[in-house]
Amino acid sequence: MSLNFVAVKKCQFCNTDLPVSTPASFHVCASLVCRQKWVCLEREKKDEQREERELLLVQQLEQLRLSTAKELSCDEGDLQLFRVPYQRNTQEILSDDRKAMFISHLQGLLDSLDKPNLDRKYRPPHSKVDPFPAPDLAPLACSACRGRCCGQGFKTAAFIERETLLQSFEHFPELSPEEVKALYIDCIPKEPVKNSCIYHTDSGCALLPKLRAKICNDFYCKDLRELGSQAGSENTLFVAIDEQVIESTLIASVPST
Ligand code: SF4
Ligand code: SF4
Ligand SMILES: [Zn+2]
User: Fold this and answer.
1) How far is the CA of 75 from the centre of ligand 2 (A)?
2) Cα-based angle 150, 252, 62 (whole degrees, multiple of 5)
3) Alpha helices (runs of H) in 9-87, residue ranges in sequence order
4) CA distance 257 to 250
5) What is the DSSP letter of 8?
6) CA 252 to centroid of ligand 2, rounded, Å
7) In the chain, what percentage of residues exceed pLDDT 90?
């Protein structure tokens, strides 16, 4: 007769025996204190891994900058590298249901125009950067990024509220409310980016700037604001990064202002 011994696992913090049913990768008992210690430890591990990946990324970016400068035959010091976010979704055919829901949102706003106080109070996303210090570079940065921030327009109906329509009527005083609504509908692309704003396409925003919500015209993400404060080189290398991985690059040669 042979005997099988099952090794008793112990909690890594208090040394209590763990039930045999405990999953192999789990080394913590059910006590709150031990669970809290485990959560802290896991968090620290993740932070360390993130820091390691960041160090690696910084090295990769510098190598990329140097090799790009070589390719462009420009002085290393004359090539600035800027990190931008990245959105990875591709375009998809707009469903009739989604389009109908959006149009009904517009109609609902038109039917309640006398109640602008129902709108969320508009707060500028950050202190005004107008005019943007690097106007030629901003669209290029957003193009390398592929419109990450426009993902916020998915659940907010492109941020269009009563205030937005009232502002559009001022821009187009010769048009009736129904005609302004038709302008919004005409701008809807057939294939917007998946899980993003209905007006978001691979080539940018399909909505006329005068019809956009204030936030769409005011918003510059953190990376773009950094670009505004630091741009000054003739050559700029945009590197779009998601989850600390380089996703795409774009070189811009714009005379410094
Ligand atoms: S503002 Fe920032 S997040 Fe938005 S599209 Fe431009 S680079 Fe991307
Ligand atoms: S309306 Fe245009 S700028 Fe505003 S969230 Fe949608 S795609 Fe982006
Ligand atoms: Zn324990």
Assistant:
1) 37
2) 95
3) 32-72
4) 20
5) P
6) 23
7) 72
Give 3-state DSSP helix, strand, coil % of the chain, rounded to 5. 45, 10, 40
Residue 143 tokens read as 């193009």
d(CA 142, CA 137): 9
Model pTM above 0.90 = no
Q: Which residue type sits at 143? A: S
Rounded Cα gap, residues 226 and 235, in angstroms: 16
**Which residue CA neighbors atom 5 of ligand 1 most closely?**
147
Q: What is the pLDDT of residues 79-127, one digit of tens each?
A: 999 999 999 999 999 999 999 999 999 999 999 998 878 888 888 777 7
Atom of ligand 1 nearest to the CA of 147: 5
Place of tokens 């509908």: 185
What span, in angstroms and rounded, lies between the C-alpha atoms of 58 and 247? 14
Domain ranges of the chain: 79-253
The amino acid occupying position 18 is L
How far is it, in rounded angstroms, from Cα 216 to Cα 114? 24
Q: Find the residues whose C-beta lies inside 6 A of ligand 1.
A: 84-85, 141-142, 145, 147-149, 220-221, 223-224
